[in-house]
Structures
1.
Amino acid sequence: MIEVIDLSYTYPDGTTALRDVSLKISDGELVAIMGPNGAGKTTLVKHFNGLLKPSKGKVLVDGVSTDKMTVAELSRKVGFVFQNADHQLFAETVEKEIEFTLKNLGFQENLEELKVKALEEFDLLKYREKSPFSLSGGERKRVALASVLCANPKTIILDEPTAGQDIIQKNNLLELIRRFNSEGKTIVIVSHDIEFIVDLNPRIIVLVSGRVLCDGSVQHVLTNKSILEYSSLTPAQITEFAWRLCEEWTPLPRNIVTVDQLLAALKEHIIGGGL
Amino acid sequence: MPLIEFKNVSFKYGDAESYAIKDINLKIDEGEFILLTGSTGCGKTTLIRCINGLIPHFHQGALEGEIIVNGYSTTECTVAFLSTIVGIVFQNPENQLVSLNVLRELAFGPENMGIPREEINKRIMEVAEKLELKHLLDKTPIELSGGEQQRVAIASALTLKPRILLLDEPTANLDPKSAKMIIELLDTLNKSLNLTIIVIEHRLELLMDYVNRVILMENGRIIADGKPSEVLYSHEAERSGVNIPRLIRFFKKLKELNPKLISNPVTIREGVEALKKVSE
């Protein structure tokens, strides 16, 4: 459980990135943080694993304030996968990359077992002796994920995981997130990728200028014109299409986000009238 | 004569075992606006590196065939010369912006080419006006938002007055509204300057209103090339795992239910028209 209470954060240069943010993320939730560039999304999630400590207010992880715990203690509970895998990887081999996390977090007896499990899970056994930097972008992303998830954190934070990823990699990621979430892990994802978020169907928290603008379901948030406008988001293509059909052709619900929802809404036209 | 022509081009990077691109034959005319797509590792970036001469002049390897840009064979010109014909913009503008302020950034390219001061100032003012950067000229690149940085990267490519602009995932790090503004800017440049544009992008729906042509690559080869409606409704697109926009997935499903629906809409406007027409 992550509880954010009246959190404000000001960077050393005086820029205030978060203002009086309060929110609660329960165990096992799937949450997306969305909003314009510079809204404070990454600053917020960096508070969840203690990379940043509040200027004002509090962040509680499982009931304990993050300023009472070290980053190492927090890292066992909250894993953080950076947007750019290259900012995170540094070891000589894939295997050492994973060992580093485990050693750092104090795993000793079952280190070997956890390491092999992570390598298998992310299909990296064949690369265990290779340098992470000799791998492709998609493979490096898997190493970054494995090096965070090997420690089996209860909460996983993913910062822009789909940027620059093709559809095959996105689908793999989607499957992975769903699987971890169904196993009970809490997932927090920072993303601009509207179509990916529609597929994932998380709870969405929208940040604008360091404040929470709204908090709700995909169908609520991504079909609300004024929320989209304020938060520099655009509607999903199917939503925009449904709105235009509604204006120019036939009445339709305003909250359509998926292809199947649109087909269902047009069912009568398809069966009875021409379509 | 086409502005860009690939004749039986293959390329293998120095230490690689397999070809990055293989048997490419391609003609691109002046004024085209092209979406280049395909899964990671398919050879898209290698293809555009061939157009601005980074291949073979910077990236070592084995190049076969010939690439002609604006009448010049790229192997016979320098990268500096080609940069006056071909501008390039990358995914992450931070890696591209080097100067202390936007004004210096815009002057960087033409100064390196030895263009006279007066001409440089004239070009900077024209580009800054067109890309709405005048109020940002004395800012440092890190003070700018992601969208502004990307506009500066495009502007600095334009100060060399290229005829071709290549962009490698220019919106990957931008929020949706900034991404839309960048794509609309490219559309304006394409129409007003007759600038030939090739964009690499995974999120195809962003570009459907603007491009006249889609080139789809797989394993180093071009597997489909044509109008957006031809390429995106093709079996090749389905098979290669390209990210087919939702509107097209919707119409593909609808067409299975109703064979009377024969058009292949790719834009929202075309989609609305198609449904209106079939239900009349």
Note: Chain B has eleven helices and ten strands.
2.
Amino acid sequence: MNETTDRRSWLGLLAKAPEEALDACWTDLGESPEFSWLRTPEIGGVMVRGRAGATGAPFNLGEMTVTRCALRLGDGTVGHGYVQGRSTRKAERAALCDALLQGPKAGAVRAHVLKPLAEQAEIARQARAARAAATKVDFFTMVRGED
Amino acid sequence: MYVAVKGGERAIDNAHAWLAEERRGDPTVPELSIAQIREQLALAVNRVMAEGSLYDPDLAALAIKQSRGDMIEAIFLIRAYRTTLPRLGHSEPVNTDAMTCDRRISATFKDAPGGQVLGPTFDYTHRLLDFKLAADGETPEPPVAEPRDEETPHISGFLGREGLIQDEIQSDETPRDLTREPLELPASRALRLQALSRGDEGFILGMAYSTQRGYGRNHPFVGELRIGTVAVEMDIPELGFAIEIGEMTLTECETVNQFTGSKTEPPQFTRGYGLVFGQSERKAISMALVDRALRWKELGEDDAGVPAQDEEFVLYHSDNIQATGFLEHIKLPHYVDFQSELELIRRLRKEAAAGRQAQEAAE
């Protein structure tokens, strides 16, 4: 995995994580680095697009709430937070994780934040997939005795 | 018109205080939490998000609580909140092919790859009231099966490969946005889809039903209906690449409709499309039928002069917030307007009476 895809994947994981889950992981990590704001947390809307017929021209489906911020650690590393919902605290923690993941603390953040968040997301996904699989229809054909 | 009138502040304040008390209801009954509404009235939350045109389940649940369950009032609250949000950007078009499906059915192909997955549906329930729910019953764990990792490709793709269904126009053109500029007609399909997706469920359902009953019949099959989760990606300029900024539940419906064709083109099935926030399948199917009906011009069909083909009629009446705003304003004071009407009718009556007297005198 190159640097960009790696960062893409952790930013996505942090954006989608339930706030309480990220809170718990952050507490577990036990870091409280010094930082300064480049952009204080801002709650806004993102227009979500779809495509006509799933494959055609884009159209505006509706908005979703997103909170973003950017900060700089004492050592100069910049972290960005773009998270779903309206929690400024979640955005701040996501940005701090993003910054820490680019430095010497990366291993700890992976172990205490990314790994558990990914596991929880996968457990939740599997739980729904297992329920969906149980509602898959098995057709059987009624054979007419015609010979 | 109505004119501003002074006075009534005390009455208004007292009305609001009483509203708050009525909203709470009997205080010996436990109060609803936002989480309870979000989790247990999820389909109401979905509707408020879809028609409020803002995906945020907690906000929609709050709006439902505040509006005492009045859905249009809740949608109004969400629309009003939405206008206060700075626009941070737009997402990449969501890829519904990669949806993690809770439900996926096709009414056209029994053995569709990916299977017929019913999901948590009301279909096949007997629509009998379940008194167990009134008695605080425990919910049994639903059965599970081995999660399936197979792809769930769109059904229309199979028909498309044989050329049996008309292709969607490939384009990355920036769609116009109803929330940023006034609706102008004729509207592009992109604008129509945006309006239909946030339009009133009852209105869209009524329009769709009218096409089924013969007012612009277009013989729809539900080629596919899917409900599930998709990731939302947005390009982040300061990062220089796109990231997933969240995920959402969507309902998508693709209809397969009767043919079009010409001297040069062989007959092909046509399509209607519905995509709606949340689990909202009645709305998604309705949207697909109305989308298809509104496409009559580009598909070279006759103007049957029916409501569902009339984009001005459909698009200008589908928004329940515009509709309720105009409808409900007539209950506000129109004292001056009405005063002039009163004077007019008195004068007309006087003139009519005078005319009669003059006629009687003449006879």
Note: The mean pLDDT of chain A is 94.
